[in-house]
Amino acid sequence: MKEPMPPLPPGPAAGESPEHAELAALCKALGHPARVRIVEHLAGVGCCMCGCIVENLPLAQSTVSQHLKVLKEAGLVRGTLEGPRTCYCLDRERLARLAALAAGLAERGDPDLDLGSCDEGT
Amino acid sequence: MKEPMPPLPPGPAAGESPEHAELAALCKALGHPARVRIVEHLAGVGCCMCGCIVENLPLAQSTVSQHLKVLKEAGLVRGTLEGPRTCYCLDRERLARLAALAAGLAERGDPDLDLGSCDEGT
DNA sequence: CTCTTTCATCGTTATTCGACGATAAACGAT
DNA sequence: ATCGTTTATCGTCGAATAACGATGAAAGAG
């Protein structure tokens, strides 16, 4: 295990939860077509080095490196130094975490409310 | 010499797929804590008007309106005019779509590749 | 009609992002 | 030690973002 995974405030109308930041950070990292492209490539290939990714995108090497840095900082990608090159691997757990957070948000509360609660709130 | 193009035949994502843009757009919309906050609020409450959201955030009304516009353009939220006010509802389908796209990406390919494919290629 | 409420839009400013070229660092091979 | 290869980082520039206050439009109340 890695973290104690503290109690999820079950309150639907709770004011604060660190998940805001986590989900936002993950989404922000994936909020660019080039980065989605990189992640997709890594998902198919398993892992590869930076040059391999550069060849698959219409971007300069420095730009790709920038994007990889963003993905790495979000934890979506891991970089392993291998001599002069760096092997980039997708962190599927992190990506699954993003999916889980989004799915959890989509299912929170009652879909019932989605249609008729506009009147209240006087 | 370099590997011209790693095998990506089995996936629908050899070079281009509109899913890139869709996932990136959805993520970009959620890539801001305030927007995650709004979506979470809507998920709990079902739907409510703009003022209700403003009261829950430390932001000016115009800023919240901007964020709502972004969410609306991404399809994550629907706005219904109700006289002078606007009722905002979360589109759970869209949010689920985001989750599904992320999950699909996380499960694409073989996790087997994630550990040992860095050596080959010499 | 006038007034109030509610929200969207406009204009502004500061910050961040995305992209590039150029440069430097790390390593293997010669 | 010197190359060649591969990456990361720096500096820069234009564009987009985020935030705000102020203004304006739509609908109901008086």
Descriptive overview:
The structure is a homodimer of 122-residue chains. Chain A contains 6 helices and 3 strands. With 122 residues, the first copy, chain A, is of the alpha+beta class. A 3-stranded antiparallel sheet of chain A has the order 1-3-2. In chain A, a hairpin with a 2-residue loop joins strand 2 (77-82) and strand 3 (85-90). In chain A, helix 1 (19-30) packs across helix 5 (92-107). The model of chain A is unreliable at 1-15 (pLDDT under 50). Chains A and B meet through helix 1, helix 2, strand 1, helix 3 and strand 3 of A and helix 1, helix 2, strand 1, strand 3 and helix 5 of B. Chain A binds a DNA duplex (30 and 30 nucleotides) through residues 32, 34, 49-51, 59-63, 65-69, 81, 83-86.
Briefly say what this structure is.
The structure is a homodimer of 122-residue chains. Chain A has helices spanning 19-30, 33-45, 50-55, 61-73, 92-107, 113-116; strands at residues 47-49, 77-82, 85-90.
List the helices and strands and how they pair.
Two copies of one chain form a homodimer.
Chain A: H1 19-30, H2 33-45, E1 47-49, H3 50-55, H4 61-73, E2 77-82, E3 85-90, H5 92-107, H6 113-116
Antiparallel strand pairs in A: 1-3, 2-3
Helix pairs in contact in A: 1-5
The first copy, chain A, binds a DNA duplex (30 and 30 nucleotides) through residues 32, 34, 49-51, 59-63, 65-69, 81, 83-86.
